[in-house]
Amino acid sequence: MLNLDNTSKLLSLPKATIRRWIRQGKIPVHEVKGEYFFDEKELEKWARKHNIFLRANHRKSQSRPSHLAGKLLDAMQRGGVFFHVTGKTVSEVLRKTVYQTPLPPEVDKEFLVDLLLQREKLASTGIGAGVAIPHPRYPLEKLFTSAVITTCFLENPVDFKAIDGQPVFVLFMMLSPTTKMHLHYLSRLSFCLRNQAFAAFLRKCSTPETFFKEVQQLEASLDGG
User: Fold this and answer.
1) pLDDT tens digit string along 123-168?
2) How far is Cα 200 from Cα 197, in angstroms, rounded to an integer?
3) Confidence band of 24 (pLDDT split at 50, 70, 90)
4) Which of the pair, 209 or 141, is modelled with greater confidence?
5) How far apart are CA 45 and CA 101, in angstroms?
6) What is the pTM of this model?
7) Are 127 and 52 contacting, i.e. CB atoms less than 8 angstroms apart?
8) Nearest residue to 181 via CA among 48, 75, 32
9) 208 phi/psi in degrees, rounded to 5
């Protein structure tokens, strides 16, 4: 049996988050004389069901073939592009983003929101110039065979505590099954964002069609097309 400290390390989450999940009945737990204990097999089964990363499985997740990483455009089309996404706080816009993203029915969206918020507590994913790239701290190896990137243009800019102090007007939520795949798509997205014309385009983009066209053209230049 695992105690709260062991479970916190295994899930790479604060004990406060786990206690909240216990109160909400979201995680299997055994209470003995006021202390919480977790059966490791039950916890592993629960983690697989909810696409929750277990630290002990980190090396296994890296063994997934890297050739599954592909075009940035494909990942963005899987995630979709949404405009006028409402919300006044980081929590609100991330929740809206998750609930708009086409995800498998077995994915617990509230858990995914929690994972994104835990990552924001470690360090802001606001990279500056009004852009944020929210993502879980660790890969979601059971989620997809490839990455999903959801693009959201916010109705009103939101303070993500970015290093340059600028509020975020567009975010790219990245969900990847492996760290290598995450880095692959992050590199391609960063290439686009460094392009001044693309950065200016984001400020006036109004349709998915024009957005995908711009990404396709930039990615073609990256691949020498």
Assistant:
1) 899 999 999 999 998 887 766 678 999 999 999 999 999 989 999 9
2) 5
3) confident
4) 209
5) 25
6) 0.74
7) no
8) 75
9) -60, -35
Q: Which structural domains are found in the chain, ordered by start?
A: 2-56 (1.10.10), 69-222 (3.40.930.10)
67 is catalytic: no
Give the residue from 115, 113, 109, 107 showing the smallest Cα distance to 89: 113
The single residue listed with the structure tokens 């409402």 is 86
Q: What is d(CA 217, CA 81) in angstroms, rounded to the nearest whole number?
A: 17
How many whole angstroms separate alpha carbon 4 and alpha carbon 194?
A: 43
Residue 191 has pLDDT above 90, yes or no: yes
Beta-ladder partners of 152: 82, 171
Out of 30, 50, 84, 135, pick the active-site residue. Answer: 135
At residue 57, φ and ψ (nearest 5 deg) are -95, 10
Among the listed residues 161, 164, 93, the one whose alpha carbon sits nearest the alpha carbon of residue 128: 164
Residue ranges of E strands in the chain: 2-3, 30-32, 35-38, 81-85, 126-128, 131-132, 148-158, 168-175
Spatial separation of the C-alpha atoms in residues 105 and 109, rounded to whole Å: 9
Tokens read off for 55: 């630290």
